[in-house]
Each structure stands twice: as C-alpha cells, then as structure tokens.
Amino acid sequence: MGPNTGDLMTREEVLRLAPEITAIINQAELRVDAGLLDVAKELKIVVNVALGTDNLDLPLMTSRGVWAANAPGTFVESTADCTFALLLAVTRRLVEADAYVRSGAWKSFQPGIWDGMELHGKTLGIVGFGKIGRAVARRAEGFGLRVLFFDPSAKDDPRFRELDELLPASNIVSLHIPLLPETHHIMNSLRFARMKAGGIFINMARGKTMDEAALVSALQSGHLAGAGLDVFEDEPVVHPALPTMKNVVLTPHIGGGTRESREATRRLACENVAAVLQGREPVSPVNRLP
Q1: Is 253 a catalytic residue?
Q2: Average pLDDT, the chain
Q3: 64 an active-site residue?
Q4: Is 96 exposed, middle or buried (0-12, 13-18, 19+ CB in 10 A)?
Q5: For residues 184 and 211, what is the distance between their CA atoms, to the nearest angstrom?
Q6: Domains of the chain by range and CATH?
C-alpha cells in the first residue's frame, strides 16, 4: 500500500523503494522478476495476499534466496460463495430482472418472461478440483446438481472426466485452476465449441485461462447461453462486447473478497513476514530455499 494514501503502490514506486525493502505484502499482482530482484538486494520474502502465484518468478526467487508465500486457504469459502452467486445470477437472469424493475417498466405479473435454467438435475463441470473446486462441489450437491470435474491429480475419483469429455456433458462449466503455461487459454475456441449448446460458462480462476475473444464469439453465435466472469484476460480491460451482453454477469475480481477473508489473509501475510524476519521459515511457503 502507498505510505500516505492507502492506495496500491505502483511498480515504479516499489522499484524506487526496492533497495530498502526486506519484505513485500503483495495485495495485487506485482510481478516479482529480475527487474525487481536486481535492485531489491535486501528482500527476504514476498507474500501474495491471494492463492495464485503466477506473478512470481519462483525459480529466480529461490536462486536469489527470497522466500515466496501465499494464502492457500483463506479465500476458499468466499470464492466458492461468489462462484454460486455468479452462477445463480446468470442462470436465473437476476441482473436483467433487477434492471427491469429499476427501470419502471414492470407494470404487471408476467409469467414466463424471466424464466431461466433450473439447477436441480443439471450437470456442473468443475475444471480444477483443488480446495476451491471441492468447496464449489459441496454447494452444487446442495442444489441437486450432478458434479463432474477435470483435474489430473484426482483421476481415481468416479466423478473425474477428461476435459474434452467433461465439456459436452456439462450444462455449466466453472473454472478453478491456477494460471500455468499449460492452462493458458485452456478454454479456447475449440473448447467452447465442445461445450453443450445452451451451456453456461463461469470463470473464477484467472483471466488468461480463457481466450476472451473466443468466449465472446461463442456467446454471440448463441452456442453458449450465458457467462459469469470475475476475471478477465487483460484486467482491468474488458472485451468491449461483454458489457453489452444481457446474458453475461461481470464482476471486478471480487471472488475471494469478504471482510472475514481479507482479515484472515492479511493476518496470515503478516505471520509469514514476521517468521522470515525472525529467521524462521514462512508459515505458507510456495518455494523452498536451499
């Protein structure tokens, strides 16, 4: 955070202060790369106040003796909650209906006009079955959804499907995977085409796991019935077609953000920093120093 304003510090500000910095608590997605590490000679630890670590050059940090840590569990339940908020908003057309009432256009009860998708008996395909994916599955089962998932680390589970098998079998596909080289654009034009006609797409993972232009094409063609997006390929820039679509619900990367989760995550970040500055290992490391 900025020293006087409370705003997030820019990369330029961080680089200016870097020679004096021993620890960074990263609230956004500051890239920790050679450009930063070359000048931050005293840096001992960087903590992401998030689960993802795609902004960290972990091999380089390890070679420079800099710890990396994250918040592996504090956003799980809040992100799963927000997933279902988006899912319900899209399938039940809640944002459209809200705007209709606010506009003053509603004059009488109109059965059928706002009918959406009933969840009971439908199939939710979860891409990524870590802590958040599993928390989403628990909620899905309470709604009567059948759950399938793709995650190579859990192939023995009877709900596991290969991705190209999961997509046409699912009425709703929800992403909960980290951004890695192999997951960049994992949802591309071919994968959107493999989704069930009339399907719903939810992304609560990272924006670059999807080809945003390909998603727009799938929505514009009518192949997909809707989407709920909390992340975008080039945040905060959003594909210009998305805000014009009534069947798309957009939120500004708020998935894990509740008062409770923020407090728990910031406390964990401070515990990580304190441990390292006291000569101990961090509480939740994502690299190992020799």
Answers
A1: yes
A2: 95
A3: no
A4: middle
A5: 8
A6: 11-74+258-277 (3.40.50.720), 76-250 (3.40.50.720)
Q: Are 211 and 234 in contact (CB under 8 A)?
A: no
Predicted confidence at residue 5, as pLDDT, reads 46
Catalytic residue among 235, 262, 266, 281: 235
Q: Is the pLDDT of residue 4 over 60?
A: no
Tokens representing residue 94 in the block: 């809640």
Average pLDDT over residues 92-106: 96
Chain segment 34-73, per-residue pLDDT in tens: 999 999 999 999 999 988 898 999 999 999 999 999 999 9
Catalytic residue among 161, 176, 206, 212: 206
Has residue 7 got a pLDDT over 80?
no
Q: Establish whether 16 is a catalytic residue.
A: no
Catalytic residue among 93, 134, 191, 253: 253
Instruction: Specify whether the CB–CB gap between 22 and 279 falls below 8 A.
Output: no
